[in-house]
Amino acid sequence: MKYALINPRWDFAGSTYFGCAEPHYPLELLTAREFLRKAGHEVLLVDAFMENLSPLQVLERLREFDEDFLVVPTAPSYLFWRCPQPELRVPALWASALRRSSRIVAIGPHGSVTPRSTLDKIGADVVLRGEPDQTLSQLASTPWEMIAGCCWRDSSGIVRMSQGLGATDMQAVPTIDYSDYPVERHHHLHHIFPGNGADHLKLGAEVEFARGCPYSCTFCNKTLFRNKYRERSLSAVLAEIDQLIDRGVDYIYFIDEIFGVGKQVRTLLEEIAKRNVSIGFQSRIDLWDEESLELLGRAHCVSFECGVESITEEGRDELNKKCRLTTERIGDLLIYARQFIPWVQANLIKTAKDDASLVAAWQARLKASGVWVSEPVPMFPFPGSPLYVETFGVQPDESAWDRAHTHYLQLFAGKGFSDIQEQQPGTLLELECVS
């Protein structure tokens, strides 16, 4: 069988999306390609976002390839599956523009929680719930009712759905082959900012060391995919890093939900310290101590982003952070980290437990030591997160994305959105009006 894996050219105009709008490696497609090839399928991967291609340009490649399945993700990268744009405008436009005789398969966070509405909004033939890396290849050889997380319309138009969710065996994920991927086009250095001591870096890449998270923070949208913590083979990851370095990459951002949990993290960092490459990632400060922060410095870490969320223990408890450190200790470790890492960032979320004046004082203390601290940002009740159930008192149904988006607009319209969001976002109906 022939599979075409298409990363659309993403556009977030009018969206409440607060992730990075730059192109990133579509690791969900790159990883799936390895499994598809191993199963004997022909694969065409086109990253229209990285290559700045139009649907017409992609269509020319598809005509020559003549695929059986055309796969389109509903979020721009595995990096942003946990905080995707709520609307399905872009994947719907691309699915419509590229539709021919092949079956269109939608993967991503939207279909994982609302498969029927995702089928309808995109006009897909199949939606795979959960992680699709290994289930995509099964579409060609396995009865769909036997594929975990498969949702489709049968010949009479009735929606059918199998049990479970796709979940990838991360030890089976091989080293991704980048020989025919446009690595040299990826000049974006994720979470690198002007003046943070990394101005010498030229070429960026994203790598996945581990997937999932052992914590269950209220706001985190990971329950229906990328949930259970699993590490990849260390040798596979290091081979991937070496391949990227050989292509000129000098900065790697680990897309892990939470970097620093696994048993092999120290060995990975010790190996990176031997290589001519810098790293960045997202983590929790309570996973680190003075010794391990010094190791990060030796491993050329230049961007260290930590979710603190609340400056009070009560606020962190409300968000189910399970943090074992005091606020003072958190601040001390962040300041210590700044001695070895050029960019150290603490993220805060708006909670009822935090006094604005105390937040400002805590921010001032850290900023005086060179630590960047965010303004408290509003939380989006992503369907699939515990916050969604807390907010609406019910489990997500097929209207969950519409309900969450409407609620978010109403809640923060008068209070202001995050400074990295559109300040006058459209409604979901407006955003998804595809002509």
Overview of this structure, please?
This protein has 435 residues and is of the alpha/beta class. The protein folds into 2 domains: 2-161, Cobalamin-binding domain (Rossmann fold, 3-Layer(aba) Sandwich), CATH 3.40.50; 172-373, pyruvate-formate lyase- activating enzyme, CATH 3.80.30.20. The chain contains 16 helices and 15 strands. A 7-stranded mixed beta sheet has the order 2-1-3-4-5-6-7, sandwiched between helices. Strands 8-11-12-13-14-15 form a 6-stranded parallel beta sheet. α1 (27-38) links the parallel β1 and β2 (42-47). The two termini are 32 Å apart. The mean pLDDT is 94.
What descriptors fit this protein?
alpha/beta, pyruvate-formate lyase- activating enzyme, 15 strands, 2 domains, six-stranded parallel sheet, globular, seven-stranded mixed sheet, Rossmann fold, single chain
User: What is the general shape?
Assistant: globular
Helix content: 25-40%
| Total number of domains | 2
Main beta sheet: 7 strands, mixed
Number of helices: 16
Using only CA atoms, what is the Rg?
21 Å
Q: What is the CATH first-level class name of the largest domain?
A: Alpha Beta
What is the total tally of β strands?
15
The CATH topology annotation of the largest domain reads as: pyruvate-formate lyase- activating enzyme
- CATH second-level architecture of the largest domain: Alpha-Beta Horseshoe
Mean of pLDDT: 94
